[in-house]
Amino acid sequence: MNQDTIAIVSGLPRSGTSMMMKMLEAGGIEPVVDNIRKADDDNPKGYYELEKVKQLDKSDDKDWLQVSQGKAVKVISQLLKDLPENHTYKVLFMRRKMEEILASQKQMLVRRGQPTDSVSDEEIAKLFEKHLLQVEEWLEAQPNFETLYVPYNEVLRDPSKYVAEIAAFLGGDLDTNAMTSAIDKSLHRQRA
Questions:
Q1: If we measure between CA atoms, which residue out of 61, 142, 40 comes closest to residue 18?
Q2: Biggest distance spanned by C-alpha atoms of the chain
Q3: How far apart are the C-alpha atoms of 88 and 21, rounded to whole Å?
Q4: What is the domain count for the chain?
Q5: Buried b / exposed e across 27-50, counting CB within 10 Å, b at 16+?
Q6: What is the mean pLDDT of the chain?
């Protein structure tokens, strides 16, 4: 990967972003993480998060992105627009079946003892679909963003095809065997 570029792993929550970060790490791209959010039953292999990312829309301190060049950072889709324009980004945008995302989120809320019935799945799905359309349109219009949409369910079905595509998108110099080995199909617990 070009050392001036920042690899961004994005998507809706529970769409496979942590799996993609693990794949990139196995392939040879250093993840930018702080390990504050620890692995748990919902993400037993870790979340691969950096707390500073959650402040993108609130803080002017974005200097940490300078040291993220040539590395991978996980940024939820809602915060992509807050990434500064003075960097070049290659976005791996995870797509997963909506019913699996909703089931996974519901299971996570259950584990945490939080209510799961305040908003219907249909309402959440509509909001997410609208958000995804807006994000895709926005990404398309950004000259410093290049995006590869990665279908989570298909990656699990045919890893070698998609791993090769991801490696080519990021410059081709990744360990694709290690990336494929990093995919743990047993963590695909919410199936549609």
A1: 40
A2: 46
A3: 18
A4: 1
A5: bebebbbeeeeeeeebbeebbbbb
A6: 90
Residues with Cβ within 8 Å of residue 137, at least 6 apart in sequence: none
Question: Which range of residues forms the domain containing residue 57?
Answer: 5-182
How would residue 26 be classed by pLDDT, with cut points 50, 70 and 90?
very high
117 within a domain of the structure (yes/no): yes
> Per residue in 99-129, pLDDT tens?
998 887 777 766 666 666 677 889 989 999 9
Would you tell me the crossing angle of helices 17-27 and 159-169 to the nearest 10 degrees? 70
Return the H-helix or E-strand segment holding 81.
none
Beta bridge partners of 91: 8, 147
Beta strands in the chain (DSSP E): 5-11, 72-74, 88-95, 145-151
Give the CA dihedral 73, 77, 79, 81, nearest 10 degrees: 100
Helical H segments across 112-171, by residue range: 121-141, 152-157, 159-169
CA distance 88 to 98: 29
Half-sphere exposure at residue 60, Cβ-oriented, CA atoms within 13 angstroms: 0
pTM for the full model? Answer: 0.91
The CATH number assigned to the domain holding 60 equals 3.40.50.300
User: Do the domain assignments include residue 41?
Assistant: yes
Q: Is the pLDDT of residue 16 over 70?
A: yes
